[in-house]
Amino acid sequence: MSRPFATCLVVLGLLAAAPAWARGEATPLKFAPGASSASVQGGAPQGLHAHYTLGARKGQKMKLRVSSTGNNAGIAIFLPGWTFDKDGYPSGKMLAGAGEKEDVSTWNGTLPASGTYLVDIGGRHGGTDYKLTVEIK
pTM (2 decimals)? Predict the structure, then answer.
């Protein structure tokens, strides 16, 4: 196998395992069977955000935290019913205390609706690495 071809395969493999940080895409957050929490690590290049979806029911308690080098990552959490607009940006109502302008890295509370939530992770100053941890009970 030629070296350029092998390098290409490695890069394609890394991209396949990467979070959905392209506009208009989201990666489902996977919980192990019987688990109430899940974590994922990734990165969001400058100007792009990582998006994760998770299903939950009204009345469940959720704790969400994103940690990053230099506390650079922030989150916004969209309520069920969110969509991606024509340019690929998330659109919809956000959880109180976890909107884009609130610049938070944690959220704890009771979920107000059943359905699929969208977690939007972006860098406050350029690109960022992150670890997202979600607990739902």
Answer: 0.82
